[in-house]
Amino acid sequence: MAKKEEPVSMVDTFAEFKELKNIEITTMISVLEESFRNVLAKMFGTDENFDIIVNPTKGDFEIWRNREIVEDGAVTDSNLQVSLSEARKTDPDFEVGEEMTDEVHFEKFGRRAILNLRQTLASKILDLQKDAIYNKYKDKIGELVSAEVYQIWKKEMLLIDDDGNELLLPKTEQIPSDFYRKGETVRAVVLDVDNKNNNPKIIVSRTSNDFLRRLFELEVPEIHDGLILIRAIARIPGERAKIAVESYDDRIDPVGACVGVKGSRIHGIVRELRNENIDVINYTSNPSLFIQRALSPAKISSIRLNEEEKKAEVFLKPEEVSLAIGKGGLNIKLACMLTGYNIDVYRDIDEDEEEDIYLDEFRDEIDDWVIEALKGIGCATAKSVLALPRETLIEKADLEESTVDEVLSILKAEFEE
Q1: Are 220 and 226 within 8 A, CB to CB?
Q2: Where are the alpha helices (DSSP H) in 22-109?
Q3: Can you list the domains of the chain with their CATH numbers?
Q4: How far apart are CA 245 and CA 255, in angstroms?
Q5: Torsions phi, psi of 299, nearest 5?
Q6: Which residues form the S1 motif domain (predicted)?
Q7: Best-predicted range by mean pLDDT among 60-64, 121-125, 161-165?
Q8: Strand locations in 298-392, DSSP E?
Q9: b/e string for 80-96 if b means 16 or more Cβ within 10 A?
Q10: Which is more confidently placed, 328 or 100?
């Protein structure tokens, strides 16, 4: 017959759980008592007449049962009552009506009771572990964490933190060029913590703006100390980012502090972000100036704002338009995200081109969506459209050949008249 394991050693096991799972020993002792009571209640119908004493110092416990002493032959419930003759075996001075307390040795209840206890404990410990994970991360949303890659799947990666807790990094929250192997360390920010059905799920992100923010806090002491404030961030993860900073100390150049000597501070951030180009600009509360800085390196000739609708019409020299829009439209897209304005870029009309006509004048003949597509590539006037090769209009404005030909025909006719 196999030897039964003494449950007395379980308190020691809980001390180990404290080290591994960050669960307080006092909490574990409370769970131990509750688990014993659950098993006793199942066995005897009630646990109210039991006293359970746990001694964390010695690592042991005692169970005492209180029963009323009744006349011999009057016992109706052996758990709540004990006969007088039985009681006097313990103390000859006992009388009917008194209460007798005797120690109960749990292991004597048999293998089934011990298994029941362990199952109850296992369930409660699992719940405690889940609560511990949730409580650890619920207030960490937006904070930087490091974890080790444990498993890589098609749609997400499973990470393990220093305490053995599981974190999920979905594919959608990974930088497109991210590549990790099992065992490598990943840095990310906590994006979301869910505890649905007491099953904590921690989602982390490397594409969040907060990830870029936390990296700057790590690399730039002035940001960490509050001397420089990050006022706005715009990112297209893995491609390009813009960050607007402001200094509370006139002696500190916020852009210079963020970039560092010869780019020493920003290089580490760029590497972490898989060579994501980062533009650092000075923040200003002046929307016109802020938009102008956000469109850097392009130089703006003039700007017209509609603050109510958060729209901006920006006019630039023809050679500056492509700089403002940027490769793949990234520069203007990020500028819109950073400033909160919907920015339209137009070619500036020189004085000798006063006879030029804005495309808006042709809305009776050309569909609105076609005009907006042409504006999107910096063509706000008839002559700016006619100045571009037909193939360029088709490719950049993403228009059908027949549509471009119709537009060119309408615009040419206007000037021939």
Answers
A1: no
A2: 25-44, 84-87
A3: 7-135 (3.30.1480), 138-207 (2.40.50.140)
A4: 7
A5: -105, 125
A6: 142-207
A7: 161-165
A8: 302-306, 311-316, 342-347
A9: bbbbbebbeeeeeebee
A10: 100
